[in-house]
Amino acid sequence: MTYLRVTTYLFVGTCRHDRGGKRLHRRATSEKQSKPEKTTVNDTNSAASATVLGLGEMGRALARAFLADGRTTTVWNRTAAKADELVARGAVRAATVGEAVAASPVVVVCVLDYPTVHELLDPLAETLSGRVVVNLTTGTPAQARETAEWAARHGITYLDGGIMATPDMIAQPGSLLLYSGSRTAFDEHRALLDLLGESRFHGEDAGLASLHDLALLSAMYSMFAGFLHATALVGTEGVQATEFAPTVVGWLTALAPILPEFAKVIDSGDYASEVQNVNFTKSAIDSIVRVSRDQGIAVDVPGVVQKLLDQQVAEGHGESGSTRIYEGIRHPA
Predict the structure, then answer these.
(1) SS3 call for 189
(2) I need a surface site. Which of 18, 201, 258, 289 has the fewest CB within 10 A?
(3) pLDDT, tens digit, for every residue of 109-152?
(4) Domain for residue 2, yes or no?
(5) Residue 22 shares a structural domain with residue 169
(6) Is the Cβ–Cβ distance between 113 and 138 less than 8 Å?
(7) Which residue from 90, 95, 89, 78 is spatially nearest to 42, judged by alpha carbons?
(8) 84 belongs to a structural domain
(9) Among 185, 205, 225, which residue terminates a domain?
(10) What's the total number of domains in the chain?
(11) Quick one: pLDDT band at residue 45, thresholds 50, 70, 90?
(12) pTM
């Protein structure tokens, strides 16, 4: 596989945070190559250029980040009007997917799912040979590894990634992007990747970025579900969500520093070191389930935790630290 030293980049499609965008269709092999709106794609300054293909909310955010850095940025979208804002900022509008792929030595894919990735890129495998693909599409580690294998078969260098940011966070403090796969590609194109946010490399196993991405999303969605359950509970007595939310934010913020302590306990495997044991936590969760039923709301959210605690009690671990429910998650019966 070839590692290229120029820094032109191609972005494809919509991202996890723009699921309302229309699905891109397989058009790469059937499109006629035509002249871009402002200049031909191949005569741009490759050392300072980037190509963004697919202009959903995230795609436009990525393009804006490159434009803000002064890079010549070529854009394409199936609905051409989505490029108007970027063209007004100085972007070049390319006519086809194939034209954009041929123009750039680095292809960054950011679409709804992995099937869409392959719809777009499989027909262009020959063109992509010798190029770098950076896939920022949300999917499973297995899908990432399968795509890396596909890339290797065609002489394509592959870097998988996950965007831990919403479109308005791109290029701002707090934006985090996770990568795994080709270390050489990551190091060589680090300056370009860093324009989008903090870049963090998780190893040469292409599935590791996806694993971390989904793990972080798991923590996020579980937290959201807890907030929604709590809000529904106080809502039964007329408390407005907007009144309650600041209290939740303060409470969860105060508790967040305990997570590294939980991590130490998990890594040590010594659950006897905790102050709050399974029996104590189970009593609290049982009360939450009880009051939820009394107030007429669903118990699905606390019910999951209750089930995990019940399992630990049944296995004789009631006096162990409550973090021991990790074992029930990690090693399900």
Answers:
(1) coil
(2) 258
(3) 788 889 988 988 999 999 889 888 889 888 999 999 999 999 99
(4) no
(5) yes
(6) yes
(7) 95
(8) yes
(9) 205
(10) 2
(11) very low
(12) 0.83
